[in-house]
Amino acid sequence: MTLYIPAQILARIHLHGEEAYPEEGAGLLLGETSSSQGKVKEIVPLMNMRDKSARHNRYQLSPEDYLLGEQLAEQLGLEVLGVFHSHPDHPNQPSEYDRQWAWPNFSYLITSVVQGKAQETSAWRLNDDRSKFNQEAIEIIEQIIK
Predict the structure, then answer these.
(1) What's the pLDDT tens digit per position in 18-34?
(2) Rounded CA gap, 2 and 39, in Å?
(3) What is the pairing mode between strands 26-33 and 37-46?
């Protein structure tokens, strides 16, 4: 699958990761999907609800926040495509913890934030058997797709 994301939305994701640093920042990706592509049209930045001592390398979204994201997506005529989160001072690759908590059919956008500055972003999708992530292609576009 290819994930299409407008540059201004990616910039908001990067800013969220920088503001959360040195903790992980996270939120939801909203948009539309087809069999071969996902189109990100909005994001819902959320608070990292993980215990304070673990936020430097873990994130947790509350059920209430996920419900809020689902409701906003419905109001906008969109769906929840997946989750974005940052890896402070760590590569933009999913960890074993990420794999254990991920859901198949969701895109996971991970941004490496090094010394407080967003660096590289990659997209991942969990296999249906939950054994591993496969990298998704990302296409940065100039404006939101109608």
Answers:
(1) 999 999 999 999 999 98
(2) 9
(3) antiparallel
pTM: 0.95
Q: Which tokens go with 133?
A: 């992530």
* 93 burial via Cβ count (<10 Å: 0-12, 13-18, 19+): middle
Q: How many Cα neighbours within 13 Å face the side chain of 105?
A: 6
How many domains does the chain divide into? 1
Residue 99, SS3 per DSSP: helix
Residue 67 maps to a domain: yes
Domain assignment present for 146 = no
Supply the range of the domain harboring residue 87.
Answer: 2-141
Q: C-alpha 122: how far from its chain's center? A: 9
* Amino acid letter, residue 128: D
- Residue 111 and residue 17: Cα distance in Å, rounded? 7
